């Protein structure tokens, strides 16, 4: 999914963080025209920009909508598409044509540069779109795409967790990762103790139902240090986490880079049709890049 804001703000991410549990309130962002959908964006937030290498969280639905995101570029990140309801058709400049449905994972690694589109029929859509920042040694890797029709499950008393990315409780997803992290959909049924890696910081987002520890809407941030998390209720919770990302990065529009000059070069290449390939089969023109802000983009820390 793209950041479709016409005047995107500089998104500053990277180094040191501290403190305890935080409630990260999202902001509503419309994607496209009058029939398009609205998402709640909780990462990057006003104060906290990343959780591990996770740098972007859009949650949407359930709502009846048409997703139509024209071809657009990405660099230096992975996109993670996870649905609770509906379906989305992915096309990219590698020639990929792949639908994703609930319980399946579409994972796109942008690396040095890729372009893609996403669209759905007029249907009820409910899901999340997430980005993972690539570390310096992998951010110029060749672009790639993976579809995982099924994922391993960690069962436990009062819960069942589909491990989407990384590892949870000794169960590891087949999806490619480049930093120590976790992404999982946790079905809570009663009271449970969810295992956590104490070296990770974590985020929790309620997707549906009622879970006492996670209110509907915001993303709950948990600092490193805990080896477990008690949850109670009946609902579906998204868990993300990872080792605190130690690099400073610059996020602007759909690019992750390390400097103003790099972002400006990515934008120039996209506008000139260089470096990102072409998406075949989408009925429409690619998205033009917004104008760069009048001030220099600077790499920043993970928190403001």
From TrEMBL:
Can you give the residue ranges of the Pirin C-terminal domain?
A: 190-273
- SUPFAM superfamilies this protein is in? RmlC-like cupins
**What is the superkingdom listed in this entry's lineage?**
Bacteria
Q: Where is the Pirin N-terminal domain?
A: 39-132
Family, per the entry?
Belongs to the pirin family.
Source taxonomy: Bacteria, Bacillati, Actinomycetota, Actinomycetes, Streptosporangiales
Q: What is this protein called?
A: Pirin family protein
List each coiled-coil range: none
Q: Where are the transmembrane segments?
A: none
Please give the InterPro entries that the UniProt record associates with this protein.
Answer: Pirin (IPR012093), Pirin_C_dom (IPR008778), Pirin_N_dom (IPR003829), RmlC-like_jellyroll (IPR014710), RmlC_Cupin_sf (IPR011051)
Q: Which Pfam families match?
A: Pirin, Pirin_C
């Amino acid at each position: 999914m793209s950041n479709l804001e016409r005047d995107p703000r500089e998104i500053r991410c990277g180094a040191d963080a501290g403190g305890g549990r935080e409630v990260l309130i999202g902001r509503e962002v419309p994607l496209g025209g009058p029939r398009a959908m609205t998402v709640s964006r909780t990462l990057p937030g006003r104060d906290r920009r990343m959780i591990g290498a996770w740098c972007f969280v859009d949650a949407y639905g359930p709502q009846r909508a048409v997703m139509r995101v024209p071809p657009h570029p990405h660099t230096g990140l992975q996109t993670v598409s996870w649905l609770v309801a509906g379906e989305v058709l992915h096309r990219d400049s590698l020639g990929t044509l792949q639908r994703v449905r609930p319980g399946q994972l579409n994972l796109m690694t942008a690396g040095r540069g890729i372009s893609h589109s996403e669209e759905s029929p007029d249907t009820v859509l409910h899901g999340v779109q997430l980005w993972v920042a690539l570390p310096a040694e992998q951010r110029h890797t060749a672009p790639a795409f993976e579809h995982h029709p099924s994922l391993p499950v960690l069962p436990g008393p009062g819960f069942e967790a589909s491990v989407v990315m990384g590892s949870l409780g000794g169960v590891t997803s087949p999806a490619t990762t480049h930093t120590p992290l976790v992404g999982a959909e946790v079905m809570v049924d009663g009271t449970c103790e969810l295992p956590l890696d104490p070296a990770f910081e974590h985020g929790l987002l309620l997707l549906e139902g009622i879970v006492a520890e996670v209110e509907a809407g915001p993303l709950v941030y948990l600092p490193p240090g805990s080896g477990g998390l008690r949850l109670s209720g009946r609902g579906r919770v998204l868990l993300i986490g990872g080792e605190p990302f130690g690099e400073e990065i610059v996020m602007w529009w759909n690019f992750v880079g390390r400097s103003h000059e790099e972002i400006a070069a990515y934008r120039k290449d996209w506008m000139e049709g260089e470096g990102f390939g072409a998406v075949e089969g989408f009925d429409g023109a690619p998205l033009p890049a917004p104008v760069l802000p009048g001030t220099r983009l600077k790499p920043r820390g993970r928190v403001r």
